[in-house]
Amino acid sequence: MDTDLGGSQREHWQGVYDRNPHMYGADPSEAARHAQKVFAAHGAREVLELGAGHGRDALWFAVRGLRVHAADFSATALDQLTRTADRQGVAGRVRTHLHDARTPLPLADASVDGVFAHMLLCMALSTAQIHALMGEIDRVLRPGGALVYTVRHTGDAHYGAGTSHGDDIFEHGGFAVHFFDRALVENLATGWDLAEVAPFEEGELPRRLWRVTQVKPASHRVRATTARDSDEPAASSRRSE
User: Fold this and answer.
1) In the predicted model, what is the mean pLDDT of the chain?
2) Nearest to 174 by CA among 48, 37, 10, 3
3) Average pLDDT over residues 118-133
4) Residue 7 contacts by C-beta under 8 Å, 6 or more apart in sequence?
5) What's the pLDDT at 1?
6) Is the confidence at residue 193, as pLDDT, over 90?
7) Cα distance between residue 2 and residue 33, in whole Å
8) Which of 208, 238, 215, 167 is nearest to 44 (CA)?
9) What's the mean pLDDT in 114-135?
10) What is the dihedral sign for C-alpha 66, 83, 29, 173?
11) Which structural domain range is residue 153 located in?
12) pLDDT tens profile 163-192
């Protein structure tokens, strides 16, 4: 994978948020609505969202009583999130983290009850880096906690279009996407209880995605791989929506 891709994607997303504040609106994604139900079923009280952006999903969780760690690599997006949290009266339940998905998560072991990532894992991350990030998710998630993530997959119309960066990563219209195949989903669920892989469509084109729900067993051991083992330096903790 192009070693400069991560940095260029970070700059690209920062510019996107500078030009288009609150670009995804205030309504939560359908994936977040599903995740909230999953978290409620598992008794979650504190959750982490990776690639939170300006906060449409993180704030929706907070309004419904969850304590939320909102991580993103865009300071502009997180500033928008913080101001909206103040206006909505939920600032006390939201903590932001300026975080790069290729670096260790800034949370303690077994510190959250749920993790949500809407199109974050399918950013410009190599397969090795995705596995490393999954190791970090495993580390911070309490036993019995749920992970809900969404990714674009190889059935998407943009798969194979645009500039290839290797490792099933293609850049189209300035946005780089790692398109998942089913084998990658299965490998990432090793040692977890894989509850669901649900296909859905979203947005223009439309984008074709999987919504993956998996649960960390009570007896689960933390994966040996961590983000420190990733094969490239810093890049994005942002998602294409």
Assistant:
1) 89
2) 10
3) 96
4) 234, 235
5) 52
6) yes
7) 35
8) 215
9) 97
10) negative
11) 5-229
12) 999 999 999 888 899 999 999 999 999 999
CATH number, domain of 12, equals: 3.40.50.150
Distance CA 168, CA 188 (A): 16
Which strands sit side by side in the sheet containing 163-164, from one edge to the other?
163-164, 169-172, 175-178
Nearest CA-CA partner of 54 in 80, 29, 33, 19: 80
The answer to whether residue 239 sits within a structural domain is no
pLDDT of residue 8: 78
> DSSP string covering 143-210, please?
EEEEEEEEEEBTTSTTTT-SEE-STTEEEETTEEEE-B-HHHHHHHTTTSEEEEEEEEEETTTTEEEE
If one compares 120 and 12, the residue with the highest pLDDT of the two is: 120
In tens, the pLDDT along 20-36 reads 776 566 799 999 999 99
User: Radius of gyration over alpha carbons of the chain, in Å?
Assistant: 16
Distance CA 118, CA 80 (A): 18
191 in a structural domain: yes
Q: Are 85 and 62 in contact (CB under 8 A)?
A: yes
Number of domains within the chain = 1
Which residues, including other chains, have CB under 8 Å from residue 186's CB and lie 6 or more apart? Answer: 194
